[in-house]
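To the team - nicotinamide-adenine-dinucleotide complex, inputs and output below.
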Amino acid sequence: MTDLTDADIDADADRVSAAPDRTSAQPLAGRRALVTGGASGIGAAVVRALAARGAHVVVADIDTAGATALAEEVGGSIWIVNLMDTAALTDAALASALAGVDILVNNAGIQRINPIQDFKPADFHNILTLMLEAPFLLIRAVLPQMYAANFGRIINVSSVHGIRASPYKSAYVAAKHGLEGLSKVTALEGGAHGVTSNCVAPGYVRTPLVEKQITDQALVHGIPASEVLSTIMLTESAIKRLVEPAEVGSLVAWLASDDAAMVTGASYTMDGGWSAR
Ligand code: NAD
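Output:
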């Protein structure tokens, strides 16, 4: 730890006021981003939002075809990886995948719905690995280069279930609560090095993951799938519709921008008011 002086604080203010033009249509020009789970759903929308604002984006996903097609669409590149296989996430593999990355979006995730007594321990372990340990390993690997550049943006795709629990989602809720905590610790450690870390916490977003959840919820609650949105998922929302993936993409792109330089350690819900109740 070093002692902070007023001169250091002035120098930091000068650095910020010399930041790129905030009115630019390409506020992320020159940035390199990596989005895990970037081939589908929210991740794909984040990839498109970052690329549209000028960033080069690495689509990191287990889905080769989806990642390749999206990378071609946005002029980005790919990292084909199984983020549940942490043995493959060696220092060398991470260093190669993350080279030059100054915006890291931890987004890959899956969902399993089951009461705790029926929840398979292997499923619990795999969800925690993909959605908490892998983000930790990527953050751990990318921070040194962000510190060296005195710039970095870590954006973790959490969920309203990182803030409030729901029954039958033990692993998911545990992983997202953990991710919220990890994100805050990253913010506290990174603040002196130009690195911000934040969560976005969406409610139900129109993606393949939610379409599967609607079917699973119907089974576990014994109701028709056509009634799941109105009787379970959206009952507590102020705005009665699903979030669109592009809406989450815009929020992530803003958090990645220079406009959000003073936003860190935060978690932004985007849930139509669900968590306000
Ligand atoms: P999705 O199923 O559409 O996309 C998930 C992506 O992750 C896919 O491209 C998939 O191939 C990839 N992936 C899955 N396992 C992987 C692995 N082992 N290694 C690498 N990639 C893997 O899901 P989504 O709805 O877009 O969800 C994305 C994130 O948003 C998740 O973390 C999820 O928890 C979170 N989230 C989703 C919602 C929602 O309503 N859809 C709400 C809140 C939070």
